[in-house]
Amino acid sequence: MNHVKALRWDHRPEGLRGPALVCAFRGWSDAGQASTIALAAIGRQLDTEPFASYDPEKLYDFQASRPYIVVRDGVVRDLRWPRVEYRAARAPRAPRDLITLMGPEPSTQWNGFAESVAEVALDLGAQMIVTLGSLMGDVPHTRPAPLMAIGSDEAHLERLDLHRPDYEGPTGLLGPIHIAAMRHNIPVVGLWASIPHYVSAPNPNGALSLVRGVEKLTGVTFDASALEEGAKDFEQRVNGAVANDPAVAQWVERLEEAATEEQQAEIGDPEALPDGDVLAREFQRFLRQRGPDEA
To answer: Of 1, 32, 81, 103, which has the highest C-beta tally within 10 A?
Structure first.
C-alpha cells in the first residue's frame, strides 16, 4: 500500500477516551454543504484542539482547489491554502471523545490518504470511524432530511435502524476511507443525508439530520438549537420561492405525497417502499410536460 507522505503532526493528543473519528469533506460528497455544516456544528459544541494536518502541496491541484486570498484596502492580508485538519474534540460529560477530520476533498493520493486516516485512528485508539455525506434526492424540503447508512459493522447498522441502500457506481473519498478502515478491522459507518435536488443552497436541514445520526451512533449529544432555527428559516425561505412557481409547487406536493406513502409503507410493509427511480422518471416526465416556454 502506498502511504501518503503529507501528514504533519503538531502534537499527539493525550487522554482521549475511546474516541470515534468523524470525518466530512467539502466537494463531491457534500451536497448542500450539509455534511461539513454538521461537522462544524459538532466542533463548535466541544472543546477542540487541532493536532495534525496534511501538506496541501501533496494533495491538491490548486487549479481545482484554489487558495483563498484576503485583501483589505488594496493590501494583501492573508493567504489560506486548502487544508485537511484533525482536531481532538473532548466531551467530558459523554461516554467518549471525538476526533474530527474536515477539509476540501483532496485531488490526488486517495488510497494513501485513506490508509493514513485509518492509521491515525488506530494510533489514537479510535473505536470507530464515522463518515458524513450528503446527496441530492427526490425529497421535499418540508420534511426532516432522511438518513441512510452504510458500513462494515452489522451491530452499529442494526442500532441505527436506517435505510441501508444497494449501490454500485462512482464514489468520492469516503469510499476509500471505508475500505481502509475495513482492512484494518476498524468498525466504520457512513451516514448520508438526502436533500432536495431543486434547492441550490446550504442546507441546515440535512446537517441537523446528520448531527442527530452522530448522536445516536456515538452517544455524544449536542445542542442543535442553532441548526433547528436554521432549518426553520431555510424551510420558510424555500416556501417563499416555491410559492412563486406553481409548477415547482406542484412537484413539491408530489414529493410530500410520496414521503407520506413511504412513511406509511415503513410502518406496514418495509418491502413496499416506492422506488426512487420511479420518482426520478416521474419528475423528468413532469418537466417535459411543461414545454420549452415553461421550463
So the answer is: 32
- The answer to whether residues 173 and 255 belong to one domain is no
Same domain, 216 and 271: no
Residues 51, 181, single domain; the answer is: yes
Q: Is the Cβ–Cβ distance between 212 and 41 less than 8 Å? A: no
Helix-helix angle 174-183:110-123, to 10 degrees = 50
36 φ, ψ to 5°? -75, -35
What is the per-residue pLDDT across 170-187, written as a single tens digit (0 to 9) for each?
A: 899 999 999 999 999 999
pTM of the entire predicted model: 0.84
From the number of C-beta atoms within 10 Å of its C-beta (0-12, 13-18, 19+), residue 60 rates as: buried
Q: Is residue 287 part of a domain?
A: yes
Range of the domain at 273: 245-295
Give 105-131 pLDDT, tens digit per residue: 999 999 999 999 999 999 999 999 999
Residues 255 and 197 grouped into a single domain: no
8 Å CB contact between 160 and 154: no
CATH number for 12: 3.40.50.10900
| Proportion of the chain above pLDDT 90, given as a percent | 59
Phi/psi for 220 (5° steps) reads -95, 125
Same domain? 253 vs 138? no
DSSP structure class, residue 4:
P
Phi/psi at 152 (5° precision):
-105, -15
